[in-house]
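Table S2 (continued). Query chain:
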Amino acid sequence: MPKKIETETQLLRLIGNTPLQVDITLVHPQSYLSTHTPLEHLKTFYKTFEQIQSEKFDGMIFTGAPVEKLDYHQVAYWDELKMLMDWSLENVFSSIHICWGAQAALYHHYGVPKHNLDEKCFGVFENRLIKPSSPLVRGFNDVSMMPHSRHSETRYEDIVANQKLEVISYSDECGVSIAKSIDSKHFFVFGHPEYDRDTLKLEYDRDVERGLDIKVPVHYYPDDDPTKTPVVSWRAEGQLIYTNWLNYYVYQTTPYDL
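Corresponding output:
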């Protein structure tokens, strides 16, 4: 996550909005120094993999990064991330992977490739449930919304070709939105249900200011007019994803002795 402070706040707001008491440990790559987060913040609130590798965790969230156009081996901290993902298999009971983090985990653990898009998937997209019986989406409407902001995709056919994986929800416009491993060890969320009202707006305004060729995020502003206030249509399902994950896949199933 490039803007760690903003992403921390968004995720902690969701996982903190349950009756469960959650103790948080923040981890950042030791092999890469963030350019968007003050060093003092990292030193104060974050640990490195080396500092946590003797611990065990009930759950873990792997966030994304704006590196989806790169091949995985070109990412500066790819080797360290692979170590962390391998370590999580024995030391974490269940993990959620977000956006590029989902693509990276699917590739590393299951060999599922990612594909660069001709045009950025950018906006708020309608999703329909493929497996409505999954406890992860308990309480979801048949059709729900989720923000996406990415330059690559993981394709439905590549995921379901692996018998250890299944798709939970899908968008006709932007592809798979949620998938998981059959054993519920890994969950893959390709959008950003944690986003605030103005997160896509800030991304759009930033790219316009930089002179980049960026289209208005779709289904986000009323009438697709960026002068109007964005309408939030994803908040309830975004909360349910993390509430359900913590309840059904972490709290109720993690053994006392990992």
